[in-house]
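From: lab user (bench 3)
To: helpdesk
Subject: output format question, protein + magnesium ion

Hello, I'm new to running complex predictions and I'm not sure whether the block I got back is the full result or only part of it. Here's what I submitted:
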Amino acid sequence: MWDIDYTLLRGGGVAARAWRAAFTELTGREWRETPIFGGRTDTDICVEVFARHGVTDCTPEVFFVRYVEHVLALQHEFGEQGALMPGVQDVLKRLGADPGVVQTLVTGNVPQVAAAKLAAFGLSGAFDAEVGGYGTDDAVRATLVRRSLERAEAKYGERFAPVVIGDTVHDVTAALANGALAVGVATGSTTMADLVLAGAHAVLPDLSDTDATVRILTT
Ligand SMILES: [Mg+2]
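Helpdesk reply: Thanks, we reran it on our side. This is the complete output you should expect:
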């Protein structure tokens, strides 16, 4: 269960720009303050943004429709302004060749935005996105892990030993709440020490050591 932002890639602020544009267009309100996005679900962020701007006549579902339109209009910018994190392609390829592994996404992004980011970096084929957990499933990240596991077990008809990999304390706690292996990667703004403190079973500085990363993820 891969987190996207600052684990697989960074989007270069494109999605945040789409978010602000959609917000102003939909609510007619000037954007005042940007919340901390890292590791949070889009539903959670949306509720906070509405509250902070005094918006009472909109729902996350309505907002996401417009937000996705803005992201798709800017999709070409992900590749120009963003970047893949080190080692990502090799790790995905190695795990993709392991018949005992299903790779999917557990991300706070709404599904269409997750897909747009991955497509911009040629990663769409690496995941079974159908069994992922997304920011539209719930405001609480732990629920996204649970939904992903339920979807995977329903689709494949077998039990999985879930592994969550992400760059924030939220990824780690969501994994632990579901009895999943929690692997932290310090390519975001959270330090290795803080990921360890959060309870991660393993922490990597980045994914550039393919052998070590694959070994940890398939333990
Ligand atoms: Mg992240």
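A quick orientation on your result: Residues 83-217 form a domain with the Rossmann fold fold (CATH 3.40.50.1000). Let us know if anything else is unclear.
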